[in-house]
Amino acid sequence: MYPVLVESTIKNIINRQLINCKNDKFIKHSNMMNITLFLLLCGLITFILYIKYKGKHNINEQVNRDNNKKKYILSKLQTFQKLKAKEYTNIPM
Phi/psi of residue 58, each to 5°? Predict the structure, then answer.
């Protein structure tokens, strides 16, 4: 028979205490991980929304840009109409 250095009740108390410490540590680490991942998710969503809406202009700038596009397109159409009306060669008819 082996000698018993520690009573069985003390072993049980220490084992329960160690299990409780392990569970507490797991809960702390889980909470820290959840908070960190939540903050990263919020940061990512904020960054994506900032990038997406950074290019938005107010109504006046959009109207001016649309007018400039219309003027550009009309000027190109006019130049093409002038080219179409021109004679392609210098041969008299």
Answer: -75, 175
User: Which of the residues in the chain have pLDDT under 70?
Assistant: 55-57, 87-93
Separation between Cα atoms, residue 6 and residue 61, nearest integer Å:
83
* Torsion sign, CA atoms 22, 23, 25, 29: positive
DSSP state, 35? H
| Cα distances (angstroms) measured from residue 17 to each of 3, 13, 24, 66 | 24, 6, 10, 73
Indicate the pTM of the whole model: 0.53
Contact in structure between 52 and 44 (CB atoms under 8 Å): no
The Cα 55–Cα 61 span in angstroms is 11
3-class secondary structure per residue, 36-93: HHHHHHHHHHHHHHHHHHCCCCCHHHHHHHHHHHHHHHHHHHHHHHHHHHCCCCCCCC
